[in-house]
């Protein structure tokens, strides 16, 4: 991370014209794939992600099955064409780690005990990456799981805050992520006011951290409302195909 790039003006206007507390333009759609129990597509700025959910289905091989609950499996994958430099299709260490943290962010919301001996698979395919892919992946995965009919305590909604040019800002894009001073993705169950993921790359003071959490809550409130809107559109039959 370097500070040589001017990412924000004195008046708090960012390179893409946003203020410090603004999300990138967001689009969400539920029910975009036919061969899955649930699916969702999200665009957040230039980040574009498709999520597919399969299951609950009987666990194979049988010895992996858990007697008292379903196993949640998550696969975060970046398409080779999703980044500026071609990404190898083989899973990187980063993708393995993100698959795990995404699973841990989603799991607390799910009543997995309702489906013993089964597996629920969540495939998160990053089609275009411009930062915030783990957060947008979680936001989309949660509405895909809802479409699949998995009972949930709440949706899970995620967004990152960070520090650029000394200011705490909401929803970093790639330039801000790369050249900024800190990046802090957070996932929450918004109605329950519970955080299920918090990571911090870089340094923040205690005050910046508090400021960051407040900004995240503002962003999450907006995203949560879009998630519910996308689910309502799916189930009201008012869905518009893309
Ligand atoms: N990125 C990339 N190639 C990679 C990994 C990351 O181009 O192999 C870019 C991509 O735009 C990604 C961003 O760097 O969204 C930030 O990555 P990070 O690991 O912080 O995760 P994210 O913010 O996407 O959750």
From TrEMBL:
EC numbers: 3.1.13.-
Keyword Nuclease listed: yes
GO molecular function terms listed in the Swiss-Prot or TrEMBL record: 3'-5'-RNA exonuclease activity; RNA binding
Domain named Exoribonuclease phosphorolytic: residues: 22-151, 154-215
UniProt record, GO biological process: gene expression; nuclear-transcribed mRNA catabolic process; rRNA catabolic process
Primary location group: cytoplasm
Gene Ontology CC entries for this record: cytoplasmic exosome (RNase complex)
Entry keyword set: Cytoplasm, Exonuclease, Exosome, Hydrolase, Nuclease
Compartments where located: Cytoplasm
UniProt-listed Pfam families: RNase_PH (PF01138), RNase_PH_C (PF03725)
Keyword Cytoplasm (UniProt): yes
Subunit comment: Component of the archaeal exosome complex. Forms a hexameric ring-like arrangement composed of 3 Rrp41-Rrp42 heterodimers. The hexameric ring associates with a trimer of Rrp4 and/or Csl4 subunits.
The family this protein is said to belong to: Belongs to the RNase PH family. Rrp41 subfamily.
Record function comment: Catalytic component of the exosome, which is a complex involved in RNA degradation. Has 3'->5' exoribonuclease activity. Can also synthesize heteropolymeric RNA-tails.
Name of this chain's protein: Exosome complex component Rrp41
Species name: Candidatus Marsarchaeota G2 archaeon ECH_B_2
